[in-house]
Specification:
The protein has 4 domains: 4-226, Lysozyme (Orthogonal Bundle), CATH 1.10.530.10; 239-320, no CATH class; 329-390, LysM domain (Membrane-bound Lytic Murein Transglycosylase D, Chain A, Roll), CATH 3.10.350; 406-447, Membrane-bound Lytic Murein Transglycosylase D, Chain A. It has helices at residues 4-22, 35-45, 55-67, 69-92, 102-107, 127-132, 147-165, 168-177, 179-188, 195-198, 204-221, 250-257, 261-267, 292-297, 299-306, 311-320, 341-348, 352-359, 378-381, 384-390, 415-421, 426-432, and strands at residues 239-244, 248-249, 275-276, 283-288, 329-334, 371-376, 406-408, 445-447. The chain has 22 helices and 8 strands. The protein is flat.
Length: 451
Amino acid sequence: MRSVLYYLIFLTGIAVSAQKAAEGFGYDYIPDVADSVIEARLKAIEADIPLHFSPEVKKYINFYTITRRDYARRMLNRSSKYFPLFEEYLAKNNMPDELKYLSVVESGLNPNAVSHAAAVGLWQFIYWTGKKYNLNSSWYIDDRIDPDMSTQSACDFLGFLHGYFGDWELALAGYNSGPGRVNRSIRYADGQRDFRSIYKYLPNETKAYVPKFVAVTYVFNYAEEHNLYPDASEYLPLYDTIHVSQYLHLETFANQANICIEDLELLNPQIKHGAIPSTARNYPLKIPIEFKDSIVVNRQMIYEEASKVGRAELEKMAKNEIGAVAGRERVIHKVRSGDVLGTIAERYHVRVSDIKKWNRLKGSMIRVGQSLKIWVLPKYKNTPKAKTIASKPKSASPKPKPGQKTHFVKKGDSLWGISVANKISIEKLKILNNLSSDNIKPGQTLIVSAE
């Protein structure tokens, strides 16, 4: 049974709306606000991040306060669920508090949001950026959807971007399009490092991104002035954490512990298929706080029952998922003349769809010399067909030709940073240095110019 707290919250929201109606403001009344007033209000709340008024900002303010007032109310409702968490992490990381509004732009405060580019979660991490910032993704659990873990990673990424660009508007643009795109725009703008100077060189989505952030910041601070109020504020149940080191079927666990399964799923949206895998070690499972003592006392019985349901079926599904890597070992296949995805898949006993997923291939086109990551079952790793390519020694680092510039790799260097500093693409760097991955080590000498 869902906690009584939810019904009290719902009734409170109705009471607020009723009170405003009684004061003479109808639910759909839309105040008319002059541009000069909006500009002055933005200046009044501006802190660490610039809040410049512009026609683009006005357009998005109108979107939230006039065109999509229902959406703005939903965001106000959800903000009470996630803003306290964001504020805690932003304060802990010495980040501007107003960055909490960025999640509204990114995901609409929906931890299960998925973009067209396969970015997921409240902070919309794609797979590789998530992995770089300690967010792992598997068939069972996706850390990018975990509100706590993804918020910390967003702080880390935004902190890096601000340290790199020294400007919050550029950091926001980099969060949306990637730092490489922002760097390119800076070069096109003759080195000018401010958002307005590089604006016309940015992708259309990024051009809109910063104005949307400014508009959302305004709307949340001046919602009442636009007759916008939360009508059913949402809250997470108060929770504590237990640690799990075994397979656990979530619904069976909830039934045994007398917890509402919807509450358990709300607290743990990152658990994608209703179970914690058998490989888990001290996995932090959030539970409504009022059930903690009972679960601790009856832990053995509850865990035993929750370990019996659905395990074989789910493990089979996990292994058969496109791009699954569980129980497999990675090898690198160097594409040769005549190779096609079908023959490569046959050689390693995998599916074409797996190769596409592992290598983020949108089509079936591959090129000679391309390095493909293949995850092979151990029983097939040393078969004659796989061994001939998987065990092929790496090419030696080429010697620079006369006139070619080089870079001595130091601790902390990355291929991306070296490419930016030398105005050369990562792909070109890899070709010049016979690199099959982005991994480099201190002490290496890299060629950083074609001639």
